[in-house]
Amino acid sequence: QGSRAGPPRVRSANARLISISTLKLIEHSTRVVQMRRAFTSNLPEQQLDALQQLVTKHISDPALTKIAGSDDFSMTSTERGLQRWEQAHLVAALDVLNAYQIERKSRSACHLGSLRLARTKDFKKDPRTRMCELLKRWLRTHAGSALVSEEELRGICGLCRDMLNHPKLFPARNPRSFLQSVAEVYDHLQRQLKEVLERDRTCADLAQRVLSLSRNLISDAIGFLLLAPTDFRHSDALPSLEVVALWQSLPDLGHVLPGRVDPALQRTMRDVWETQCGSILAAVLGTPWCVRLFDGARAEEEASRAVEDRPSALCIEDKGSMKTLDSATRSMRGSEAKAASGNNQGSTSCNRGVGLLISEAASQFERGNFKHSGLAGAFRDAKDPAQTRVRQSYFDAAQIVFDMVYLLAEVLVQFHRISDGLGDYGMIRMSPWLHPFLDALTDKVQRLKANLDHINEAVESAYVLARARQGRVEKPAPSDRMTA
């Protein structure tokens, strides 16, 4: 037996080594347990502090903000507590929290093989329970309401989303964990937010406001271009210079709304629309987008029927059917008819029509041909650089007005329809296209303002101030009413 066990001294040394190893293992285990206990004892405080910071960040309701220092957020019933509901996703989120609280059990840190021991324990005021009760209180308050505030809903969504960023503070020990339940609640809140945005019409109201202001701007700009730098004294007989009133005076040839013409006003403004400046404005007024912008879908349908019923003889001008016109005004009327006919062929044709009229007028002015220009006498000197810049500002302003009419009627109207049908959610989804459009529209508005300011300064200097000082006034001159 002695030979098998070894000498006594060896056996004694082995025993001492085993004792030392056992003592070190026990000391290490003790330190691990102490550290775990220290961490466990501080964890609820850390959880509560983190939750309080998140609640303060996202929640503005004073009744919900003091989650850490109040006893109001203790465990409540796991029933819905609602007789009826209006918001399905909020009720579903409430059910998720109730299910979590029903299935929640205290899990031991000890393992038996691969199993974690469960212990029976009631959770009444721990941080997880407090947060669940805060969410349940908000959900019960708003689930039965027909209207849910977007701002409050975004706050609750933000609170749930930020809680998901703290997995170490809320370790999972149950099959249905706290953060898993919060993630499900967040998913339902996101769907509810989508429904709220679809019902909200804030963007639609703003788009309608932009459309209203744009109509005012376009109408005023056209009226200014019709009166300020021109000698269109016949315009004094018009009862109104609004776009819907000017339609009544447009010539029959290519009229966008022939059912609204007024023969008396047509006779009054006939000479105006036959001038080069007048034909440019008539082409802008005759576009289908101008009809859509100022008179809506009903007038657009009326214009479409008018195009279909228009005699074919008026639709073949590109083949030289303008021979019936008087030779003295054939060129000008032909240009106007091309512009009016082009309006029904798409944006390219319309732009070509307005652009062609502008280029023809600029070419005539450079050669000093102002007989049929329509410009006032102070702007008819082809050799004066200052007057040349005024004429260029006039052309640029007319082109910008045409571009804006197209953008507003063809693009902004569609954005308004989307926001009106799908609410703010639809406008948010369209934001990648809306923002570049607004940037382009803003740029055109600023350029239009600069051109109109330049023209206004020239007209005031040449006519308003000159008459006030009883100085010499170039003729033909605008009437006193035109420069008022």
Compact overview of the structure:
This protein is mostly helical and 484 residues long.
Description:
The chain is elongated, with a radius of gyration of 40 Å. α11 packs parallel to α13, α11 runs antiparallel to α14 and α14 runs antiparallel to α15. 65% of the residues lie in helices and 2% in strands. It is mainly alpha-helical and 484 residues long. It has a two-stranded antiparallel ribbon. A hairpin with a 2-residue loop joins β1 and β2. The N and C termini lie far apart (131 Å). The longest helix has 51 residues. About 9% of the residues have low confidence.
What keywords describe this structure?
two-stranded antiparallel ribbon, elongated, 484 residues, mainly alpha, 16 helices
Main structural class = mainly alpha
Beta-strand share of residues: under 5%
Helix content: 55-70%
Q: Evaluate the radius of gyration.
A: 40 Å
Number of helices: 16
The shape, in one word, is: elongated
Weakly predicted, low-confidence segments: 108-113, 311-349
Q: Alpha-carbon distance between the termini?
A: 131 Å
- Average pLDDT: 81
Number of strands: 2
* Pattern of helices and strands: HHHHEEHHHHHHHHHHHH
Strand order of the largest sheet: 1-2
Describe the largest sheet.
2 strands, antiparallel
